[in-house]
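Quick board copy: two proteins, each given as sequence then tokens.
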Amino acid sequence: MKNQHTIEIPANVFRAIFFSQPLNMRYLNEFFSVPEFIYASLTTDDVKFLEQKGKDGVSQVLSRLERSMMSSIQVVDLTASETTLPSPFDTWAQAIFATEIDASLAVHVGLSGTYNLLVKSNRTTVQNVNQVQLLVNSNILLRSPFQFYWEEKYSIAYKGQDVSYALYTASAEGGGKGSARLLIKIWTHTELLIDDASKYIDVTPFLKGVNI
């Protein structure tokens, strides 16, 4: 097997990545299916390292890859601040809403244009659809109660050429199991903006039944 860089990936390296799951990135987790991201990004040196270290080395490779991606990105975390997102992102956040369709959560984010969609839910379930043409009134169905583990955390990312957006659930600060909040991430060429969606919208529909 070869990755996108035509690097040969031995079976033992593939297994090391597979058995290291669940894998999470510190900042960009919502925008990537992490095992596939690692596999696609491996260099010859990474392969040699993982052949020696096995799954114990996977987190080190992942950390290095993310540090490289974040080297020119400033992280701006507004979740504990009264400061809101800069324009026009504040206007975008205010336009987010959710409805219920046949017991599933229909998420409306008011984006138009071509995006790659990445949905994470149900533990390690990942759905990735590329080159989706969105309209302002498009919606994505998530969190059907007919699915196993539907009450666990989830995220949806809209990956654009210049700006990418994500909504995701996270544990409330200082809260125990059963407490959750809905957060926003906006990823540009220079910044990663993070904020609490409750500053802009009613997050109740998004958190209904969530238990993390």
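And the next:
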Amino acid sequence: MILNKKLMIPSTFLLLTCHIGIFYFWIFDWKKISTPYGLVIWIISTVCGFLLYYHFKHQNSNKIVLIGSSLLLIVSSSFMIFLGIITGIKLLVLCLKYIVFYCVKKSEQNRIT
């Protein structure tokens, strides 16, 4: 039980730092986060955040620090999922734009010939 409390804060801040780094790259250099390594880090850090939250949620502690760490984990991991959904929607819209552009170009070429 004591070991779990000692691991809670460092693991929370490590994951929070990782999530802040992912958010930074998502805003300023999305090509780095869309590599296979970037996506694996994104997914693993999100899953680890939820696993740590569920592990430490069952601790019988009323300390503000542990409760705050648990809240940071759930908010940060949920935000990573939100970014993933936004990225998926953005990529879907981009693909649809290219498909429509390609179809319009093909129809114009067919009219010319």
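Board note added afterward: Residues 2-112 form one domain.
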